[in-house]
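Title: Prediction job returns without error message
Component: structure pipeline
Severity: low
Priority: P3
Assignee: unassigned

Description:
Job completed but the reporter wants confirmation the result is attached to the right record. Sequence as submitted:
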Amino acid sequence: MTGLPVEDRALAAFLGLAIGDALGATVEFMTRREIAAEHGVLRDIVGGGWLHLKAGAVTDDTAMAIALGNSLVRRNGLDLTDLCEEFATWLRSGPLDVGNTCRRGIRRYIQRGLVTGQVNEGDAGNGAAMRFLPVAIANHRNAERARHWAVEQAHTTHNHPLSDAACETLAAMVVALLAGDGKAVAMELAEQLVGRYPTFRFVPYSGMSSAYVVDTLQTAFDGYFSTASFEDCLIRVVNQGGDADTAGAIAGALAGATYGLNAIPKRWLKALDRETVATIRALVPRLLVISDH
């Protein structure tokens, strides 16, 4: 299932992450019933939500993924001190939304100079998994290094076995998808995750879409594996509500890497914040080059 060039899939994955974020942010923290009452089925990027976003604006999911990408490109690889500096600069800029665990990890670096934290039972949130994508693109020829970097970057803010497993699985899935291996290989990797940690089982889907990394991956995987198009995948995922921007971002990355740029609805690309699009378009080719080193 090669077909599309890796450049197309990688760009679609990163734009897909941002689109899933922007689409899902409108209904973040809402229940499925509340979404149905207010939107019917949310199909368009309209902004609003609890953050009162402009249509097409993205949240911390995309911002932290871009920050990770910027650091990887600047250092031609993973440099945790540089990454923490990038996160610190972002936090000091006063973003609209920062997850509590991400904030705690970044402040730990600012105050104590520590680039990783100890294993913490409270670190099983989705804040490390939401930003995994740049390490997969930067290692699209090296799945093992992609897994390793995914966990290393995670530990700047999150250090928990479930978060680690989610990050490395997602990275391996995207590496396979960028190579054109298709959804069957992605499913094998998802099933390996469930084999190691049965709590991630997503069939049948439990309907929980919280910031707990297990709920987030179950929601993203349910949408991704039960649909056959980029659009259907994201509509299914974000309309579950809960932590809809993060589930949407992860599902968008997987779907973009699978279906490519032409599968992304033009109305969604047009609605996405122009500066975000330009940043991603400039970043992806530079990330792809890292895999050659």
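Comment from assignee: result matches the submitted record. The radius of gyration is 17 Å.
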